[in-house]
Amino acid sequence: MKIKTGLTISTGINCSGLLIKSMPLGLAMLVLFDVPPNIRRAEYCPAGNTVVNILVLLVFCTTVLYYFRKLRWRLPSILACLFVAGYFLYQAVHTYPGQALNYASALFAVLLLWEFLLLDKAGKIKVFCYFRQLMVVVLFLGLLVYGVRVFLGTGLFEYFSFYSQTIADRGYYYLRLGQLYMLEGGYASRLCGPFNEPGVVGTFAALLLIADRFDLRKKGNLVLLAAGVLSFSLAFFILCVGYILLCAATEKRKDWLTCLLLGVLLLAIFLPYLREASPVIEQLASRFTITSDGLAGDNRTNGDYDVFFTGYMQTTDRWLGMGTGAKDSLTRGANLSYKNLIIDYGLLGFGYLLLGLLCLPLAGKWRSRQCLFFVLLFLVSIYQRPHVMTLSYLALLFGGTEYIFAREVRAVESAMADEQVEEDSYLGEVLRV
């Protein structure tokens, strides 16, 4: 009887420990599913979205029950929740004629965001770290599939149309192995992993690397770096170079600045020869060419959209916007730009969004340069990826700033402890004398 009781207690402890560890992992899975992967599109996996939605609902209900007593109703968290509520409320009451918001979906999105935002600092950091680990795993699998494509050809792959018909009409398509994708039809195979665009890989890989200060001693960061490079994402290179420039300029990192200048010098010398030798390098380099219309690689809008936006900015609607869905009703094509937010919600709505995303994650962290750099570069990413009021982006933003700040605090405490040990040792020697 005693033996049986002991086993029961031991099993209970193990189950409790497993439950505690699985809750932040469950939330991290919700963050990953929110990116979202292509498995949630019916044309690529007919039952995928249904299965994922059921899983999301089950995990959400489980984590809410577990975290309910652990939620922290602190002022910064409450303000963040009000900010989210205000954004979705404006979406709901200010819609373009003929457009309708899916209220059930919007309400569920708000509840998901509130659950994450009300976690304590440790909870946010755990979810962020698990999300980073999940991204490393799926992108590592994506790199393996990319290797299969390069070395074994396309025989093992399925062909699928690109999710946007406008871009598919330009000759772009997917190669798929399992649920891992590559974008083809351009100058090179571009890594998508399980997601719908290589730009998703580039943006998330860059911001995760920035949150970890490009610590390439970690194998996971090497995976993120390789995935970002092979996505050939303009956003990846801009965010990474922007971070290096900020650090080199403000932290007097002579090593970083030297490497950057050396890299620019080598590019200036050898790039003309490389462009002649390789069509891939030629087309990749052409994306960074400055033209009269701006950066050549900035392909997020088309000419008709730009003409419409210029005219729109001359009207009084520019202040409050034309309402949710206006961009989809009034423009055609795969246009994905910060301008979409201005068309739908106006300059005031866009300003509200930027102000909230700048101030709320930095509450109590304004003196941290690394946190400030991370948030500013996150805001830069909105230029091409405007729909950031989702669990995936806000978990990355708020969880990333908490992670960066916690690392800095721990580094300071460790340095202070080392100094105290040295001081105690010195005093001991003096007293012995």
Q: Which labels suit this protein?
A:
433 residues, mainly alpha, 2 domains, 4-stranded antiparallel beta sheet, two-stranded antiparallel sheet, 16 helices, 67% helix, 5% strand, disordered N terminus
Overview of the molecule:
- By secondary structure, this protein is mainly α.
- The chain folds into two domains: 2-260 and 295-432, no CATH class; 261-294, no CATH class.
- 67% of the residues lie in helices and 5% in strands.
- Strands 1-2-3-4 form a four-stranded antiparallel beta sheet. A two-stranded antiparallel ribbon has the order 5-6.
- A hairpin with a 2-residue loop joins strand 5 (290-291) and strand 6 (294-295).
- Helix 7 packs parallel to helix 9.
- It is globular.
- Mean pLDDT is 87; it is low at 1-13.
